[in-house]
Amino acid sequence: MSSYREKVLINIKEKIKTPSRISNSINISTSHVSTALKELMENGLVICLNPEKKQGRIYRITNLGKEVLEHI
Distance between CA 66 and CA 57 in Å, rounded? Predict the structure, then answer.
């Protein structure tokens, strides 16, 4: 797992967040966070709670994502 994806996953472990909040929390550009979130969603580790929105999307970790974190 890339360090960006790992940092994003750890950052949303306890609380749902927007990409900009994640970006500010872990000091990574929003574009890198968005790419990481897309890849995490494709693998079922993260879910977008409001995919119909263009801005202000919020993400949370899935149970599978929590399991993956326990092993890394």
Answer: 20
